[in-house]
């Protein structure tokens, strides 16, 4: 499972999802078995994220610096 997904369709959730934006994906085996993905969306007030159809996203791999920036990490490598 990748840590991040790219939104490719807002699925009508215009207030919660932005097409072309990278979202943090949270582990949820049960949701995945139902073709759902748990992400921290635009609301961000719910640290456990929200469930959306997996078809709205594609998994992506990011360079370490990008991951740190998206996770709010202040750690710096070299």
Description:
The protein has 78 residues and is an alpha+beta fold. It has one domain. The protein is 17% helix and 27% strand. Strands 4-3-2-1-5 form a five-stranded antiparallel beta sheet. Residues 74-78 have low confidence and may be disordered.
What would you say about this model in short?
This protein has helices at 29-33, 64-71, and strands at 4-7, 22-26, 36-39, 50-53, 57-60.
The main sheet comes to: 5 strands, antiparallel
- Class by helix and strand content? alpha+beta
Number of domains: 1
Query: Helical region count?
Result: 2
| Content of β-strand | 25-35%
Average of per-residue pLDDT values? 88
Radius of gyration based on Cα positions: 13 Å
Helix fraction bin: 10-25%
The ordered H/E elements are: EEHEEEH
Count of individual beta strands: 5
Uncertain residue segments: 74-78
Q: How are strands sequenced across the largest beta sheet?
A: 4-3-2-1-5
Bulk shape: globular
What is the terminal separation in angstroms?
27 Å
Write a concise keyword list for the protein shown above.
single chain, 78 residues, alpha+beta, 17% helix, globular
Chain-wise SSE layout:
Layout: E1 4-7, E2 22-26, H1 29-33, E3 36-39, E4 50-53, E5 57-60, H2 64-71
Antiparallel strand pairs: 1-2, 1-5, 2-3, 3-4
């Amino acid at each position: 499972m990748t840590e991040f997904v790219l939104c490719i369709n807002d699925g009508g959730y215009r207030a919660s999802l932005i097409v072309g934006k990278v979202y943090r994906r949270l582990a949820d085996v049960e949701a995945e078995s139902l073709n759902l993905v748990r992400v921290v969306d635009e609301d961000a007030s719910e640290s456990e994220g929200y469930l959306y159809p997996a078809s709205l996203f594609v998994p992506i791999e990011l360079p370490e610096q990008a991951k740190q920036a998206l996770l709010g990490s202040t750690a710096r490598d070299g």
